[in-house]
Give the backbone structure.
Amino acid sequence: MKIAHVIRRLSFNDWGGTEQVVWNIAKAQVRAGHDVRLFATSALAPAPHETVDGLEIFRFKPIYPWWPMPAKIVAELDLKGGNPFVPGLGKALCRWRPDVIHCHAMARIAELCLRTGAKIGAKRVVSLHGGGANVPTVEARSLKAPTRGRLPWGKMVDYAMGWTRRIPEDFDGIVCVGVDEYERYKTRHGHAMFLPNGVDTGLFSGCGERHGGERIVCVARIDRQKNQMMLVEALARHPRATVRLVGPVTQPDYKEELVRRARELGVEERLSFAGALKPASPELVAEYANADVFVLPSRHEPFGIVVLEAWAAGLPVVASDIGGLGRLCAAHPAAAVTFPPGDASALDAALEKAKSCPEALGRAGRQAASQYDWTRLSQELVDFYGSLRP
């Protein structure tokens, strides 16, 4: 089977959960004998074509349809959002003629995948990675902030091309990472499936047991959705704790807020940033190995793939009881301590509980992680492709 995975961006220096899912699913499909290619914009990764671990990646320049569009705003949209036009992407898909176009983006990129798939007779599948069913209003507004007040000339092009934006309903199949989104679409679409994220457990097998320290690690992009501000403020209440934030900066102004708040509280020496680390890299594994507890205080989260990594590394997990993240932890109650999102007192109590029984939480976490294998999940996805008609 020829499978094209289309993603908004794929940069190995700025990595997120969606990129990790696409990369691991694609590699598992190649191992199973399928012909797989990755298609993306050139945001943060200017190489137009490269082959990594046997996977061909093709990139195309995005055009953000607002005016004016200074370089600073382009850089912000490269990090997150932007809803670009991507000239060349449709032609490249038509030349290759895959059996399946699996889109991992929304809006104009998804529309392009719909139109191209119909043109070449490919099955069209879309994955919902971002928790769109429960994005808070405040955060949704912050995503649109860079283009606010600019002329949206792209809307005129949309109208001229007759783009309808019935996304994801017009796709042949919908893959939901979050249970919330699956519950929304399973009755509205004839072909929707829930497919959780996975983990390579062997990658973290060398991480040792924990014994109740206070080195906190959070692996997530620096973004208001992830709510790392809770951890910065927790440092003021836990004088022996340290916080290590690992992940790319997708909202630079939010990082500035974190640093400024740490300075105000006098805890800046106990806060550090590792930046973006390559997936499956020794540096990423070391971040998990060097921590005592993993905390993910997200405001909303469709799943939380980093929780699987923390479990595989034997780390006690503390997480917001929200959306798919809360359901994941509830499915393995011996492996995680949850707290209501945004509740500082509950976070403190959860940290104390995790500190009191790290070995038990770590063992339960490793057992939970073993149930999420990329090879098995990839086969479920291929079977789903087979059930669809273009």
